[in-house]
Design brief:
This protein is α/β, with parallel strands linked by helices. The radius of gyration is 21 Å and the shape is globular. The strands form four sheets. The chain has a seven-stranded parallel beta sheet with strand order 7-11-6-1-4-5-12, sandwiched between helices. The chain has two domains: 181 residues, Rossmann fold (3-Layer(aba) Sandwich); 121 residues, Rossmann fold (3-Layer(aba) Sandwich), CATH 3.40.50. The chain has eight helices and 17 strands.
Length: 329
Amino acid sequence: MANILAFAEQREGQLGSAAREAVSVAARLAEAAGGAAHAIVLGGPGISSVAAGLGAYGATTISVGEHDALADYNPESWVAPIVDQIRSGDYAAVIFAATTLGKDLAPRVAAHLDVPLASDVTEVELSGGTVSVTRPVFSGKAFANLEIEASPALVSIRPNVFQATEQDAVGEVSTFTPDIDVSALRVRVIDRKSAAEGSVDVSEASVVVSGGRGMKDPENWGLLEELREALGSDAALGASRAVVDAGWRPHGEQVGQTGKTVAPKLYIAVGISGAVQHLAGMRTAQTIVAINRDTDAPIFGVADYGIVGDLFDVVPRLTAEIGALKAGD
């Protein structure tokens, strides 16, 4: 019997899909091992009020560390409570989400425990006491199958690849106050720049409209913004790496191997050729629509629907048709 721990990431006092996915994976592995899934949440005072919801995804025990120094992510204050929890729990595996925060935090925890980390995995299993994972390598051109011999096995899962599964369970929440010497912290958050009010994070959106270099100029992004507005409030804007590198769009919108992994119900790729790096971040979308004038663009190889044509003609017409359909509802 082996228990599994999930680190449940919170942002601004809210637990998002990354936390639910990590707990669901931990619950599935714990079931296979005949153990229980535990979760740890760190945050400022009051964060325990939202932690109980993790029980619905399989966490039987939820440890919540509350402290003013944990309100904003700071590796100097976050690593120690997690390491202490792992050492005291004798866990077979620990699950992180490979988000921006998780990619910084998980390696630090691994270093403190002196164990390896399998990062950005797309499959994970536990059988016979051994954790096996699959992770993409060479920008998604190949996949590596690994067996983790270290104990505990530290794994970070690619966001939006594993399904968060609800269960008929209630988690027991316990709170603790970590011993943190605030005066010794060398890093502190002095400002936070949030996305525009009302905008949806591309990794959480049910519909994503992404643009690539085919947009020709950042001034033309208004076409995609109009399409997003026509699709509704659950839609978000995305961008290819080339666009972000050129400074046309913020990094927070980047979809791909070095950006965010998305799994929306609908993904519309506009003027994106479909480099392997980009496909690695969006190919799990339920329905993919590609608009490109190049009939040989790799994006058509993964698209459910492809439109070959000039995006500056296609997108306005698509926006108008969607608007007309919604007006008729």
